[in-house]
Amino acid sequence: MPAVNELMLQKLNIQNYAIINELEIDFSGNLNIITGETGAGKSILMGALSLILGERADSTVLQQKEKKAIVEGSFKVKDNKAVISFLKDNDLDAEDELMIRREIAANGKSRAFINDTPVNLNQLKSLSLLLVDLHQQFDTLELGSSDFQQEVLDALAGNAELLTEYQQNFQQYKKTKKELTALQAEQASANAALDYNQFLFDELEEAGFRENELEELDAELKLLSNAENVKQELSGICYELKESEQPVVQQLKMLYSKLHALDQYHTGIAELARRLQSTQLELADIADEIESINSSVNYSAERIQIVNDRISMGYKLQKKHGVTTTNELISLQEELQGKLNEILNISEAIQQKEKQTDELLKRCDQSAKIISGNRKKAIKPFTENVNNLLARVGMPNARFTAEAQSLDALGESGIDKIEFLFDANKSGRFETLRKVASGGELSRLMLCIKSLVAKKLQLPTLIFDEIDSGISGEAARQVGNIMKELSGSHQLISITHQPQIAARADAHYFVYKSIVKDKIVTSIRRLNTDERITSIAQMLSGEKPTAAALQNAREMVGN
């Protein structure tokens, strides 16, 4: 039994679309072949499928105008990292099975759902690229994508681990370089204010204020300005306490002696005498301190000038910086010191970041050169294998080549831009795949390329719509063989008219028209072995196959 692939379209259900009333297809995980007469509705199936892949639609596809059209696909996506990542990034439920539904109303409006959650067409298209690779005549193929071309060559060159390591380093390099640029911009901005901040800091540092200095100088200035009056008053007080005709201290001493002499007459007098003595001693001490203060207070015009200058400087700085205290000036000085230190720190951080950036760039450059060398080595055997396969599938005059063009700077994938080139008729003029018009040729070219990398890349479901255009006989048989081999690791769905291709199917579906309630509708059924033989015989010899055709068909299916 063929292996069932982990990424596959399991079921397609279509309702009220074009001439399809309702049909459901259960697909095999390997090679699915769809056949049927021209006009039976095979292209309609592809049209319906394209709706759940994000293509636009209108109400003309409705078979019954009063009902909406519904196309629903069930995909198996077990362990597919890219799909799981997409679902998580878009806040969608990540499960082993994925349901995509598209509904088209009679007014032409459509809605899309992923696991029953409404999504927009851009989300649907992004997801569809991970699920299905649809090749139709004259489609713009994934084959023309630079990302895919590079991915193919890297798979054949064995660059997977190297490329992962390179991309991690490259992302880190870009992040570090961005941080470096931000630091440099910060430094440039800081440098613009550096001189001014340095001037402000130097001004405050030169002033050298200590805590509460201006407030203390204010008090000192008041004293100095009133020194003579203060000295006169203090001298008067001191005179009354100690030196007058009847000094207060001396009078208290005498009164104490009188009171003390009465101790023997009353028990309360001793305490009063003690208190009076204490008061006398306290006044004597006060008188001494007043005398000391008095001797220290001296009018000094020079000191007044010094204090005035200091206060004037302080008030000028306070006004300049919009503050009112000495301590606020000191805090401002500390803040400016911090800003100046930050500039020094930025310079150190820039030096460190520059070193880190250079190391990462060097590492990326070394890895990119190795990756590039591996790619260039892989090009020759790759192009030879593709050209050999092209001859087998009926394109003997076609030539394929690949180029690794050097970039001016490192990119997400290294220093190369990979370009696939094609010459359909041995003209010697190779063109980019985007300029090649033949859809059939491109489909076969894609088949050849993907068959070479199938075991090394996790490909989505591959759908080929009439890949057999313009071939028959041996070429068709070779296409069938390649598709059969490729389907061992990836699900393939192919619409074909060639019996040689149909004979290689793991599941063979037949599309046909029938009349239901006076209306022509398209139906589909999976053929059993006998029906397959008959269908392939009809493809070989016509509506009524000959015995030879039946025998030939039997041998083709058996092989």
Describe this entry's structure for a reader.
With 559 residues, the chain is α/β, with parallel strands linked by helices. Helix content is 55%, strand content 19%. It contains 16 helices and 15 strands. It has helices at residues 42-51, 81-89, 121-131, 146-157, 160-207, 213-225, 227-242, 248-260, 269-296, 301-321, 326-392, 439-453, 473-486, 499-502, 529-541, 547-558; strands at residues 7-17, 20-26, 31-36, 69-77, 97-104, 110-114, 117-119, 132-135, 399-411, 414-423, 431-432, 461-465, 492-495, 507-516, 519-526. Helix 4 (146-157) crosses helix 11 (326-392), helix 8 (248-260) runs antiparallel to helix 9 and helix 15 (529-541) crosses helix 16 (547-558). The longest helix has 67 residues, at 326-392.
Low-confidence stretches: 137-141
The protein's oligomeric status is single chain
Morphology:
elongated
Number of helices: 16
Distance between the termini: 15 Å
The helix content, as a percent range, equals 40-55%
Mean pLDDT level: 86
Estimated share of beta-strand residues: 15-25%
Structural class: alpha/beta
**Secondary structure: number of strands:** 15
Radius of gyration over C-alpha positions, nearest whole angstrom: 49 Å
Question: In order across it, which strands form the biggest sheet?
Answer: 2-1-4-5-6-7
Largest β sheet strand count, sense and barrel closure: 6 strands, antiparallel
Question: What secondary-structure arrangement, pairings included, does this model have?
Answer:
Layout: E1 7-17, E2 20-26, E3 31-36, H1 42-51, E4 69-77, H2 81-89, E5 97-104, E6 110-114, E7 117-119, H3 121-131, E8 132-135, H4 146-157, H5 160-207, H6 213-225, H7 227-242, H8 248-260, H9 269-296, H10 301-321, H11 326-392, E9 399-411, E10 414-423, E11 431-432, H12 439-453, E12 461-465, H13 473-486, E13 492-495, H14 499-502, E14 507-516, E15 519-526, H15 529-541, H16 547-558
Parallel strand pairs: 3-13, 3-14, 8-12, 12-13
Antiparallel strand pairs: 1-2, 1-4, 4-5, 5-6, 6-7, 9-10, 10-11, 14-15
Helix pairs in contact: 4-11, 5-11, 6-10, 7-9, 8-9, 10-11, 11-12, 12-13, 15-16
